[in-house]
Design brief:
This protein is mostly beta strands and about 475 residues long. It has 3 helices and 43 strands.
Length: about 475
């Protein structure tokens, strides 16, 4: 009887909520603000088609805001959106042709939990000065999702998308955000601006940005997105600066730069399709940090395939000339320029027609020495069942030799294990440790088809 009464109570509550939920149509910014102020949980506010200029959509109640016709509500001027309550849904809005001043933060700001922005677009929302810095989308909160959106032609400073890191950087003092997701979005025609570092498409701060090795992380998921000519800074397309993130099933075409484990540990980069399409500066995957899994990716025609960096020893000064990277929020008050790669799994990746070296172990070893102490060789790697297709001559696999002169003679590194890998073509393997782990054949074996994403698979439904 008690169970029946409980179920009946839930049903009545849901029916009551449905009965009191309201749908309101608004045509001006004042009407929108008034509707948000009196809205109850579950209400729907419909913005009428047309141009909305200089409107701050500040949603402070758990409700839905949607366009009357998806793609026909155009926000311009200095318009922006903030989700400032849990369980908000925003659907069908377009930010186009406007710009923020540098003090205004973000075009879309998730200051929320379980918020969702879908079927929306940000296009040409650029200030006059390239140096004016703001994100287009910023996550501050947990379990939020940006999905099926278009982000096109951002040409100014700061990344397109960022995640709050709780003080992982000197410019980030916000509470760390976790478990946010960006999926099925289209990043299109984001120009490269020479000399402008810090214009990644994604910059994911969080626990691990100071090289912490605990159980925490940002837990950010970047999945099933399409990047086309999304150059940004031209170096890091996706920059992971935290632990335990997932980059999976994305397609990157004709885009300068790479997927980069810049700092942080235990990240998974899986089943991504990276194809240069003749674009100069198109890279593959760069690895720094511990415990990563790099699995099932396909990289075609890029400048390089997988580059596993040498790490920086930063616990002490080896020569008297060390110039460390200082950061007050880090346990030692400093962080490595590039962290030590250890215990990574690199398996079942396919590298095709890479212009230079397909797989490099110990990239940039001793770069900047002795002011920079990048002398930690990658160790404990499992490199298994990868396929390199290199019809033309060249070097497929190479690595750096450890300098054993004092003071570097103190370092000993665990061996890396190569097994079950295949090399197609007449390319060289210049790393002795890898030779036995590769079988050379003349023709490519049968491979499962890996279908790249197209514009029909991503972005707002109304755009198709």
């Amino acid at each position: 009887m008690r169970k029946f009464a409980c179920v009946l109570t839930i049903i009545v509550a849901l029916m009551t909520r449905a009965a009191i939920a309201a749908e309101r149509s608004v045509a001006t910014g004042d009407e929108l603000r008034a509707a948000i102020a009196v809205a109850r949980p579950g209400d729907v506010i419909v913005m009428r088609d047309g141009e909305w200029k200089d409107v701050f959509i500040d949603i402070t109640n758990p409700l839905a805001v949607r366009a009357q016709t998806p793609g026909k509500v155009i926000l311009s001027g200095q318009s922006k959106l903030r989700l400032a309550a849990p369980d908000i849904v925003v659907d069908g809005l377009v930010f186009a042709g406007g710009a923020l001043s540098d003090k205004d933060g973000q075009v879309i700001h998730f200051n929320s939990d379980r918020g969702r922005v879908t079927n929306c677009a940000i296009v040409d929302y650029n200030p006059r000065e390239v140096a004016t810095a703001y994100y287009w989308v910023f996550f501050e909160g947990h379990h939020n999702r940006l999905g099926h959106c278009l982000l096109k032609n951002k040409n100014h400073q700061q990344p397109v998308i960022g995640n709050a890191g709780g003080g992982s950087s000197v410019t980030d003092s916000k509470t760390p955000s976790r478990h946010n997701t960006v999926d099925h979005c289209h990043f299109l025609d984001i120009p490269h601006v020479a000399g402008r570092n810090g214009r990644e498409i994604f910059r994911i701060w969080g626990y691990g940005g100071n090289e912490e090795l605990g159980d925490d992380g940002a837990f950010f998921t970047i999945e099933s997105n399409l990047f086309e000519r999304a150059h940004g800074e031209g170096s890091e397309i996706i920059s992971l600066k935290s632990n335990r993130n997932i980059v999976r099933g994305n397609t990157i075409r004709a885009t300068r730069g790479e997927i980069c484990n810049r700092s942080g540990n235990f990240n998974r980069i899986e089943e991504n399709f990276i194809v240069a399409d003749g674009q100069a500066g198109a890279g593959g995957i760069r690895i720094c940090g511990q415990g990563h899994v790099i699995r099932g990716n396909r990289i075609e025609g890029c400048e390089y395939g997988i580059n596993i960096y040498a790490g920086e020893f930063y616990e002490s000064d080896l020569t008297g000339s060390f110039n460390p990277t200082l950061r007050e929020t880090a346990p030692l008050g400093r962080v490595p320029r590039y962290s030590w790669v250890r215990n990574a799994v690199i398996e079942n990746n396919t590298l095709v027609d890479i212009k230079n070296i397909d797989l490099f172990i110990g990239g940039s070893y001793k770069a900047g020495w002795p002011k920079s102490q990048r002398v930690l060789m990658p160790e404990g790697l499992t490199i298994d069942k990868n396929l390199i297709i290199k019809p033309k001559r060249g070097v497929a696999v190479a690595g750096t030799s450890q300098d054993r002169k004092p003071p570097l003679d103190k370092f000993e590194f665990k061996r890396n294990v190569f097994s079950g890998n295949t090399l197609v073509g007449d390319a060289k393997i210049e790393l002795d440790a890898a030779t036995a782990g590769f079988t050379k054949i003349d023709k490519p074996p049968e491979q499962p088809a890996m279908k790249p994403l197209t514009p029909q698979d991503v972005g707002p439904g109304w755009r198709k």
